[in-house]
Amino acid sequence: MSVKHSLIVPCYNEEGNVENFLKETVEAMKGYTDSYEIIFVNDGSKDTTPKKLRQIFNENKDVRIKVINFSRNFGKEAAMYTGFTQAVGEYITIIDADLQQDPKYAVEMARILDSDPDCDMVAAYQAHRKEGKALSKGKHTFYKTISKMSGIDFISDASDFRTLRKCVADTIVALPEYHRFSKGIFSWVGYNTVSIPYEVRDRENGETKWNLKKLIAYAIEGIMAYTDKPLKLPLYLGAILLVISVVFGIIGLLAPYYGIISAVLFAGSLVLICQGISGAYLGKVHTQVKDRPIFISKEILSYEDNQESDN
Ligand code: UDP
Ligand code: MG
Question: How far is it, in rounded angstroms, from Cα 229 to Cα 283?
Answer without folding.
Answer: 8
